[in-house]
Amino acid sequence: MSPDEIESRMDGVLADLGGGRSEAFLPSPTIQNHAAFLASLSDGSLACAWFGGTLEGKSDISIHLSRLAPNAGRWSPASRVSDDPDHSEQNPVLWINGNGELTLFHTSQVSGNQEGSVVKVRLLHQDGEAMGAGDARTLPLDRGTFVRAPVVRRADGALLLPLFLCKAKEGAKWNGSHDTAALAISEDEGAGWRVVHVPGSLGCVHMTIVPLGGSRMVAFFRRRQADFVYRTTSDDGGETWSVPQATDVPNNNSSINAIRLKDGRIALLCNPVSAATSRDRRQSLYDELGEEDDRPDSDGGIEPVWGVPRAPLALCFSSDEGVTFPDRRLVEDGPGTCLSNNSIDGQNKELSYPALLEDADGVLHLAFTFHRRAIKYVRLAPDWLKSA
Known about the structure:
By secondary structure, this protein is mostly beta strands. It is globular. 48% of the residues are buried. It contains 2 helices and 27 strands. The strands form 6 sheets. The chain has a 5-stranded antiparallel beta sheet with strand order 1-2-27-26-25. Strands 7, 8, 9, 10 and 11 form a 5-stranded antiparallel beta sheet that branches. A hairpin with a 2-residue loop joins β9 (118-127) and β10. It holds the Pfam family BNR_2. It comes from Rhizobium puerariae. InterPro entries: Sialidase, Sialidase_sf. This is Exo-alpha-sialidase.
């Protein structure tokens, strides 16, 4: 499908494909659309946020949001809900706070300098069919902090915000070689935060927490080394974590999403491929920004791998708390080519950065990047899983 063909389908209309599957391409006014995040709202509607602009890292990258009202057949036009003209605003995370208000966390950086990123938070509100945004507040976290995965509320009411820490040597460019995982914990509904680190997590990012009941939790990671999805556990409500270990699911240094289903299984949505299955490589995540930067790449740490294809997209299921995922179902397939972030020339074919929810009826809701041009939404009824 060419970029023009994708654009022609970005009308938000939900199409029933039969067999328990429906899908839509979300409306967006921007050329590039990436990093979807889904949330269920108190009125029964579904919200999807992502970042859009011309190219990841450019200062015109902002957060956008669309809603699917209950029983509606079309997603709403996109609303722009962040507004910094000098920074690239990325990786939205939606959360409903204790007052029932829709809250947006997102990152903010200059160009591709992820080591300088800050995390901002703001309230969102309904303004007719559109969404409006309040003023942004910067969280008191170290520079280089990134977010991607959902906030988890602990049994005692504390908030757990998964982080990954983008680090670079003094005088060098960030390239992912020193990234580690951490968790911000707030006992005052987000006014203040303290950070706990995941030991032995060099190269582990996009920490995604799945509560297991009581104080037990498991979390999963994307890996900069593009080898496997990694797993860690906590028995004390996220205060301490085990050293991450590899699962049996390959990872291509691209985002993952994991949830616990109502039947007790863990569902992992990802690209189950790795650097071992492809020779495709690119220099870095931001190697096409075209901005002058004479700094050398940060050395040491691990060797990050960029450019491994981001397809197929598959649902992987585990019945042993995420140690193994023997049951895997194809959601979308394609070449997955991601040697360029360009959304205009049609070279990018990635199916990546997925979001995943299960509703009260057991229906799965998915959203993901489609060729860096659009956000695609897919709804899977329980019948689809039985027949897939």
